[in-house]
Amino acid sequence: MDILHLVDRLEELLNESRPIPLTHSVVVDEDRVLEIIDQMRISIPDEVKKSQQVLAQRDRVMAQAQEEANRTLSMAKRRGEESLSRDTIVEAAHERAEQILDQARAEAEAMHFEADEYTVESLAALEDELTRLLNQTRNGITKISAEKQQLMPAENIEAPPELVREA
Question: Are 46 and 1 in contact (CB under 8 A)?
Fold first, then answer.
């Protein structure tokens, strides 16, 4: 039986009791009061048990909620750290890639400069060699032409056209 119902019945019993004149006292039916008190004694432990169960259930729910909140917070923290770690790694990789590209550009520029220097030196050496060969060839042609001129009479024989060189 509900404890509040029993309290209501006790109050009702007091209200229905006969008052003692000139006092604040009333005459009550002892058997009915004792019966309600016995029912209250029986009901109170049930009510207390129910309230203890409700409190225990509340504590379990609160503990589960706290555990879930801690687990969620821990997971979010771990994911945040992983994301931060990945971002740091990506940033470091980008920086390293930039360094490698800068180094490659510098090396390519140096190689281009060295290749240009080598080309200029090679072409200058080739020009010198060609000039030397051209001078030797001209000197040889001049010498042979001069020797031929001495051996051939000037009026009878003309030099073949391939040996005549225009100046």
Answer: no
One DSSP character per residue, 75-109 reads HHHHHHHHHHHHHHHHHHHHHHHHHHHHHHHHHHH
Task: Collect all residues with Cβ–Cβ distance below 8 Å to 40 and sequence separation of at least 6.
Answer: 3, 6, 7, 10
The overall pTM is greater than 0.85: no
Contact status, residue 27 vs residue 20, Cβ threshold 8 Å: yes
At 163, list the tokens.
């040996």
Across-strand partners of 137?
none
Where do the structural domains in the chain lie, given as residue ranges?
3-151
**pLDDT tens-place string over residues 66-104:** 999 999 999 998 888 888 888 888 889 999 999 999 999
pLDDT tens-digit map of 94-141 = 999 999 999 999 999 999 999 999 999 999 999 999 999 999 999 999
CA diameter of the chain:
187
Positive or negative: CA dihedral 102, 105, 109, 111: positive
Q: What is the dihedral angle through the alpha carbons of 43, 48, 54, 56, rounded to the nearest 10 degrees?
A: -150
